């Protein structure tokens, strides 16, 4: 499928205000920073210069396997075991996102993965918060605007989810806005972490769960109905519960004749936001290409679709790059980009008045012509 540009190239795309809901802190480290931090601790890397290291991360992640993709994190996590390193990575993430036109972002990471250097879980959260505060202040001093919050991630394959849930609640008034569950989906069901989900649910605290990426619709059902997820990390495999109709030049996806299964109807009816990550989904084999990515028919069917980076280092991507790929390869135009941005803003883990200010004060003025998103706009 070829795209229509609508003049949306280069700086025009970068200038659009963006909301990023799914971005891993340890997946967005600058290659130069990985090199410097690794050198300081004597950690051997697969490449010795910035360009080669960045290329290695992308190549190693483009295997069609989620497990191989996740294995690349051993290098970034290894160099993020001190408060100073965490603070630096968080600060640089804020600066890089702001330079990419992101006005609101949620940075997620697993505190339990940053304890081998002797830090306590609370010290990890404090270090990340300090870096975010520094980066935000620098952006403001330069005349820019960005707000960045934290999402704490529990790992499917570990036994620390209840600890992470309690840590998130202890910091809910200090920038932590949700609990996440990530890691290998196959063989590690969300049901193992029911206690953690109950902990946050009874405290009226939101949850997002990685599901429907490597595993199918069953993982999505478990995330929504057992974990009580208010958003789904990825969720691209919900398309498996949709029977698309015949394709035609006027209806290239067969949306008009689509038949939704019970789960797909539930996800759409409840407008459960999908944190879709196009480039990453291609790398891990969840989809075959950007042109054939389910994000387009899902958006046209009225699902609550958002666009995200997942891991900027491993995918060699940015929000501008994700937008460009959708424009060039999937036929998106300004209307689709605006709708996804508005959906992301209304789906952010913020209070309603804060979402409203983000939409009306930042997003709508940044898109021309102004218009309404389909999702609660």
In a nutshell, what does this entry contain?
The protein is of the alpha/beta class. It has helices at 11-15, 31-41, 50-61, 66-71, 73-78, 83-99, 121-141, 161-170, 194-201, 217-225, 262-269, 278-283, 295-300, 312-315, 319-330, 334-347, 352-366, and strands at 18-24, 102-109, 147-155, 176-182, 207-211, 231-234, 242-243, 259-260, 274-276, 305-307.
Notes on the structure:
The protein is α/β, with parallel strands linked by helices and 377 residues long. The protein has one domain: Metal-dependent hydrolases (TIM Barrel), CATH 3.20.20. 45% of the residues lie in helices and 13% in strands. The protein is built from 17 helices and ten strands. An eight-stranded parallel β-sheet has the order 1-2-3-4-5-6-9-10, with helices on both faces. The C terminus is likely disordered. Its EC number is 3.5.4.4. Belongs to the metallo-dependent hydrolases superfamily. Adenosine and AMP deaminases family.
């Amino acid at each position: 499928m070829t795209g229509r540009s609508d003049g949306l190239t280069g700086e025009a795309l970068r200038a659009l205000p963006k909301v990023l809901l799914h971005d891993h802190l340890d997946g967005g480290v600058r290659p130069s920073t990985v090199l410097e931090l690794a050198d300081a601790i004597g950690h051997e890397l697969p490449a010795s210069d910035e360009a080669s290291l960045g290329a290695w991360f992308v190549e190693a992640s483009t295997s069609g396997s989620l497990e191989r993709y996740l294995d690349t994190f051993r290098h970034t996590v290894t160099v993020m075991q001190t408060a100073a390193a965490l603070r630096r990575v968080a600060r640089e993430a804020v600066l890089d996102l702001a330079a990419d036109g992101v006005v609101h972002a949620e940075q997620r990471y697993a505190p339990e993965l940053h304890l081998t250097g002797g830090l306590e879980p609370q010290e990890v959260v404090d270090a990340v918060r300090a870096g975010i505060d520094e980066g935000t202040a620098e952006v403001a001093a330069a005349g820019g605007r960005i707000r960045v919050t934290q999402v704490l991630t529990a790992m499917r394959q570990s036994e620390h989810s209840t600890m992470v849930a309690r840590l998130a609640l202890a910091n809910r008034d200090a920038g932590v806005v949700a609990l996440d569950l990530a890691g290998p989906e196959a063989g590690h069901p969300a049901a193992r972490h029911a206690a953690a989900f109950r902990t946050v649910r009874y405290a009226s605290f939101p949850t997002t769960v990685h599901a429907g990426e490597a595993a199918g619709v069953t993982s999505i059902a478990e995330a929504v109905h057992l974990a009580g997820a208010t958003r789904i990390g990825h969720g691209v495999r919900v398309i498996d519960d949709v029977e698309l109709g015949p394709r035609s030049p006027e209806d290239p996806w067969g949306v008009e004749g689509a038949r939704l299964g019970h789960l797909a109807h539930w996800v759409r009816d409840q407008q459960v936001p999908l944190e879709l990550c196009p480039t990453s989904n291609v790398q891990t084999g969840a989809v075959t290409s950007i042109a054939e990515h389910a994000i387009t028919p899902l958006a046209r069917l009225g699902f609550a679709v958002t666009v995200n980076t997942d891991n900027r280092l491993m995918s060699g991507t940015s929000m501008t790059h994700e937008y460009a790929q959708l424009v060039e390869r999937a036929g998106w135009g300004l209307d689709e980009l605006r709708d996804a941005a508005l959906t992301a803003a209304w789906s952010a883990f913020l209070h309603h008045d804060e979402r409203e200010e983000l939409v009306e004060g930042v997003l709508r003025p940044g898109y021309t012509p102004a218009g309404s998103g389909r999702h609660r706009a």
